[in-house]
Amino acid sequence: MPQKTVTVRRLAELCQVSKSTVAMALRNDPRIAAPTRKRIRKAAAKQGYAPDPRISHLMSLLKRKRREPIWNVAWLNSAALEDAWTRLPWFARYLKGAERQALALGYDIDHLWIEEQTPLQLARVLQARGIHGLLIPFPERPAFWTRFPWNQFSAVVVDEWEVRLSLPRVRSDRHCNMRLLLARLHAEGYRRPALWLQRRVDEISDEAYTGAFLGWHFRHSTDKPLVWLFEEPDSRTLLQNIRRHQPDVVICSHNQTKELLETGGYSVPGSLAVVHLNLASDVPAWSGIDQRHEAIGAAAMDVLNTLLLGGQTGIPAHPQTISLPGTWKQGVTSTAKTLKSSVRL
């Protein structure tokens, strides 16, 4: 005889609580007392309860149609500047994408600057505001995050970070982006690319840029790879390297590269092309990679929504990492030297 399906109603009867209390406890909703949540979740595990995915999907669709927010979500700014997420254009686009998707899903996003707060103080502020979900864009202050009480919240990291905590993360696929950029440059006739990059930019992305650059170079050239890493931009050293090694295109993420080269006597793109690894409004009309910041912000909100609906809090054993590829944008800092009909990665 088949075993009877365990329902929320049945769990409510066993635990002598209402069905809504069971549903909230299974989502780990803090509005239900912790002992009650623990007792209900223990009973659900013992009875072999599993939510019906069709009902969960239907409920999520119904919640999206509500005008009032399902839960509050916090956008946590740990940068030194309170307005970093509006002043820096690529960061502002992360936030714009997250806010747009949050609105579509029925959430409100609170902006919080964590300057001068301790981890426990921040947790109390979040709980007082009824915030259960956290979007953490490019977290700084590693010591702060290692002491934060993650078990009370659902959290997703936006972009890279230096803290070795295994939280779900949505980021740009920098390895793929470099390969796409090099493939496009190769198709346009460039044969001597040089990578001029701040060391920290490469380190925080686990050397994705240099790894992809060197891999491409070893497959397509017998010359010595031109990789120039720097701590702080030095125009004199850059110009010396260019005069010595004669690249035909400089790949960079430093916004003053074009100006430095033109000050040094090079015309861009006439005598030397320049392409950017992370296009935004502060480098208008440049050629390079659009990392699709708004899509990354929106995807991070989607992942957080899944965690909240599933009642998943804390640091997961197997965190999800989503890496979104960018797109090439042709601008005025490079030009096709040869005509090609296709680009191959």
Write a structural description.
This protein has helices at residues 8-15, 19-26, 34-47, 53-64, 84-87, 89-105, 119-128, 142-146, 174-187, 199-203, 208-220, 235-245, 257-263, 293-309, and strands at 72-77, 108-113, 131-137, 154-158, 169-172, 193-198, 226-230, 249-252, 273-276, 287-290, 321-324, 327-329. It is built from 14 helices and twelve strands. The protein has a six-stranded parallel sheet. A six-stranded mixed sheet has the order 7-6-8-9-10-12, sandwiched between helices. The chain has three domains: 8-50, no CATH class; 72-172 and 294-326, 3-Layer(aba) Sandwich (Rossmann fold), CATH 3.40.50.2300; 174-290, 3-Layer(aba) Sandwich (Rossmann fold). With 345 residues, it is an alpha/beta fold. It starts with 7 loop residues before the first helix and ends in a 16-residue tail after the last strand. Helix 1 packs across helix 3, helix 2 packs across helix 3 and helix 9 runs parallel beside helix 11 (208-220). The radius of gyration is 25 Å and the shape is elongated.
